[in-house]
Amino acid sequence: MNNILIIGGGAAGMLAAVMAAREGAKVTLFEKNEKLGKKLFITGKGRCNLTNACDVEDLFTAVKTNAKFMYSSFYSFTNQDVIDFFENLGMRTKVERGDRVFPLSNHSSDVIRTLEEEMRRLGVEVHLNTAVRKIEAHEGRFACIVLANGKKVKGDGCIVATGGISYPSTGSTGDGYRFAKELGMKVTECMPSLVPMETEEPWVPTLQGLSLRNVNATIRDGKKKLYDDFGEMLFTHYGVSGPLMLSASSVVGKKLSDHPLTLEIDLKPALSAEQLDQRVLRDFEENQNRQFKNAIHKLFPAKLLPVMIELSGIDPEKKVNVISKEERAHFVSLIKKLPVTLTGLRGYKEAIITKGGVSVKEIDPGTMESKKIPGVYFVGEVLDLDAVTGGFNLQIAWSTACAAARACAYQKI
Fold first, then answer.
1. Stretch 395-402: mean pLDDT, rounded?
2. Higher pLDDT, 168 or 37
3. Which segments of 23-89 does DSSP mark as H helices, in order?
4. CA distance 201 to 221
5. CA separation for the pair 407, 404 (Å, rounded)
6. For residue 52, what are the β-bridge partners?
7. Cβ neighbours of residue 204 closer than 8 Å, sequence gap 6 or more
8. Looking at the DSSP assignment, which residues form a beta bridge with residue 383?
9. Given 12, 28, 148, 350, which residue has the most CB atoms within 10 angstroms?
10. Residue 82 phi/psi, 5° resolution?
11. φ, ψ of residue 92 in degrees (nearest 5)
12. What is the DSSP track for 88-121?
């Protein structure tokens, strides 16, 4: 029976513990927090978007860094396998907009409880409030872990499931990167991802709390288009957030760390410029004796109205029947391409995930084992893998954890 040590009791760590124990291994899990699944508890606004019910092929499109590396593990433990795993343990699931999968109860605590109960049933030994200081190798392969109190714990294999650096209050403080470096492995540059972005315009903070649904966002670096998608976004006191902007950050983050980028918001993507011009003209004709500021209230949310009036350059007191064709054309253009200057990313405290991590070039994609130090496996967010929002990052965690657990349980000692 293989003796497997797991560092980290988040999504990847707990699933790895279950899968390894199911294969007959003796499993001991070490978690430095006072309870398991602290980050899992807050994911999906506390509802836990645990995977995405898309076709398996679409998982690769959602992964923005090193998608090809995930080929073996995604097919070995698919998104449907994840759903079946929880359903078979009695936790019902549901599929919502965008194929997002949630617990039927809407409580992330049910995901954690389901994993904890299965670990308990399988006899997994869990040590809470137990930090790991380092991983030691002997003659080029895994030997033991050293706890914060100096105690050494020997094992046949070690799975590192320590997460990244995002939401450090949950215990994600980059320990896994340190372990990897100490073992002579490469860690790529890290940055916050799936994170809100900061903006330059003084009018943005006046829209704090305004959510725009069904808009199209395009981000450009000069004339080059970097990102284009449709969905929901949110204005904040510092810039922009919401699903559309969080996903955009995973695509444009590296460029944005170098220099500002331009965000163009199409407030009426269902209408062409010509159709929108006709709509505006119709509103003007219905209100031909009214002032501009009182004739366009049907076009925008109330909070956005004064901003659009100011940016249009049209005198708010001007009667709409004397607004020129050129003024109207500029107004229509503004609605189709509301420009915002993106200046930077928010920090790790607000980031859902970390972009960057242990280089996958040094990891076996079928087993998640280190190519440099046999017996040490890396899973989940600690790896240089990241995806857009929608349950895809948790799918990476589940699939890599399963691959490592099965390989570790069967490795020849």
1. 98
2. 37
3. 38-42, 56-62, 71-76, 79-88
4. 17
5. 5
6. 100
7. 235, 239, 240, 340
8. 358
9. 12
10. -65, -50
11. -70, 150
12. HTT--EEEEGGGEEEETT--HHHHHHHHHHHHHH
**What stretches of 222-260 adopt beta strand conformation (E)?**
224-235, 239-241
Kindly state the tokens that stand for 277: 């011009």
Neighbours of 64 (CB within 10 A): 18
**Token pair in block for residue 392:** 């895809």
CA 146 from centroid of its chain's CA atoms: 31
Structure tokens at 245: 């902007």
Model-level pTM?
Answer: 0.92
d(CA 296, CA 71): 51
In angstroms, what CA-CA distances link 188 with 62, 191, 195, 356, 358? 20, 10, 19, 5, 6
Read off the tokens for 53. Answer: 């019910």
- Strand-pairing partners, residue 212, are 233
Q: Residue 153: is its pLDDT beyond 70?
A: yes
In angstroms, how far is the first alpha carbon of the chain from the final one? 10
Three-state secondary structure call for residue 238 = coil
Average pLDDT, the chain: 96
DSSP 187: B
CA distance 349 to 372: 32
Q: What single-letter DSSP state applies at residue 319? A: B
- Which residue reads 């809407």 in tokens? 106
Dihedral of alpha carbons 52, 58, 63, 69, sign: positive
Type of residue found at 195 = V
